[in-house]
Amino acid sequence: xxxxAKSIASYFKPTTTVVAATTTxxxxxxxxxxxxxxxxxxxxxxxxxxxxxxxxxDAKENxxxxxxxxxxxxxxxxxxxxxxxxxxxxxKPSPSKLSSSSGTLPIVRSKTREELRERISAKxxxxxxxxxxxxxxxxxxxxxxxxxxxxxxxxxxKEFVTTEQKTKKVFPPAEDIYSWSRFCPLKDIRVVIIxxxxxxxxxxxxxxxxxxxxxxxxxxxxxxxxxxxxDEIPExxxxxxxDLTEWAKHGVLLLNTSLTVxxxxxxxxxxxxxxxxxxxxLKVVTSRLAPGPSTxxxxxxxxxxxxxxxxxxxAHAAKMCAGVDKTKHLILKSAHPSPLSASRGFFxxxxxxxxxxxxxxxxxxxGGIDWKALxxxxxxxx
Length: 382
Prior knowledge:
- By secondary structure, this protein is of the alpha/beta class.
- It has a domain at 175-290 and 302-363: Uracil-DNA Glycosylase, subunit E.
- It contains 13 helices and 8 strands.
- The strands form 3 sheets. It has a 4-stranded parallel beta sheet.
- Helix 4 runs antiparallel to helix 5 (124-136) and helix 6 (139-149) crosses helix 11 (274-286).
- The two termini are 37 Å apart.
- It is an enzyme of class 3 (hydrolase).
- Residues 22-82 are annotated as: Disordered.
- Belongs to the uracil-DNA glycosylase (UDG) superfamily. UNG family.
- The active site is at residue 197.
């Protein structure tokens, strides 16, 4: 199993500390090795056995869920500057305080973009680093993620990205980094598709995973996605472009784990903090199951309360959503749509149909995604 896969997997498993029993002076010595009494409790033994089985399962899954070779990254979420484990986002409640580069401050939540802008402007260091987020992030996402933005790891991440943008070519363009949040409001999300890096060649990335701007050659992975969708939904007309904006507008969150990348260097912005931030994004999505902050009735849920579908293609995506509650959400796993792995389980996975079947059960006949919208009114392509 690749070291990075193991490190990511470890974030989604609670650790079990085994404490050896203290030997007292009155304890009888044990002289027969083959009859040595174990100091491990039955629970500890079961935990060790389950851990070994989980590791074996991870190794098998990594073999089965292929990744495109061009996208192999120096990806180890465990080395994230935040020092936090990604799964902690799912397993632990939000802290009552947040850490910033200037210390620990009580959380003061803003209700509007302007309120947050004013709060941040009181600290010049924050204002300089967070201008892009305050100016370009979709407002519902901005309000939901505001506490994350002032944590030390994110401020350090922004310092790194800003320096890269000044000295290197970085994709996508700054104004497109958060386009996913503008095209796909939090309240509308029904499906989450997880990618790795933005595309790192010129003119491709525009802030949506797997998507490229109109006029740009359709990437091979996306062509395979189109093929699978056409096989599942014959009415889907394969478009001549690779712009997935319409999917985003119909409730599909197309989220890369790293939101930026240095030109022509895959994985160059991994392990800088984006992984922790995008895990927080996923937490925001799954947290919509909880009552809204201003609701009185426990049955009055915020939009999306009945769950969402996660499409986890490839080992990386599977690890990123491993902490998601499977009793409340649907997680669909398969091989990656890359040409190198699509034939190993992506083709024929029926994920688009399965997603809609599940959503219609949860939300009613109109609850599915109109996948056909992307190619509507356009000539097909081979």
